[in-house]
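Recall the central idea of this unit: under ordinary conditions, the amino acid sequence of a chain determines the structure it adopts. In this exercise we apply that idea directly, starting from the sequence alone.
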Amino acid sequence: MLILPIVNKRRVMNVEIKLKNATKVRHRVSYDDAKSSDIIVNREKFSNSSFNNSKDVNAPIDFIRSKSILYPRNFLVTTKEESDSTLYDVYEVPQPPVKINDNMDKLYSKAITDMRLEIPNRPSRGKYVSFHDLGIDKHLSDERIALLQRIMKNGNSDDFVEKLEEAGIIDLLQTADYINNFECTVLSDSVIPEESLQDTLRAMSSINTRDYRNLKKYYDMAKSNTDIYMKMSYINKIIYDKPLVLKSGDKAMKKLVKKKDDYDFMQAA
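Accordingly, the structure predicted from this sequence is:
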């Protein structure tokens, strides 16, 4: 399970992030022509390819794209085997989005790898995701977003793509399309009041233990993720007139919008 810590309305929340249209199509199966923890694209297997020996974090998505050039269709991802059997589950996944840069691809590859490491009938082990560590924020400067806003405000729907290309910010449009391939769901049972977390950090700061450093790193990651997610949501709002959404555990939807000069989470009406 990929966990995206963020801060929302003075609460630190843990958000599960996963591919939106990945569907589990088989439960507790075992096939002679399919290994566990594998990717199968047009009958080509990740486990049998040179990509499997690569240490590049983007080897999964590079393999998928390379085996989809002639026939771009849905592909399969198998999970690990159950703890006490040789059975595993199978996901069907749509084609990955068009490549923007290696940094966005890292998020996609992490989502694929997370499915491959899933063990059926066992609670998933959470793995934190830092947008900053992935480098997703490198092309999301305030200046570029402001330029996007000016072009979209002063242009028209017929030529805005051409204008974005001329301005060298077409990747912002592609970023909005890319991130919309992911679903973000708030894990409601793991919400922490931000003030309580800050009080704990203040109390532990003088001893500077590993627990303190890990908790501070978690909080810093949450604040950084929030800033970057807000920027992507605002880009989506500029282009498509709607912010990104955070889906909560009770199915209520929360939107990320820009209010005056600050970003702010708003409850959907």
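Helices lie at 59-66, 102-116, 131-134, 142-154, 160-167, 170-179, 194-204, 210-240.
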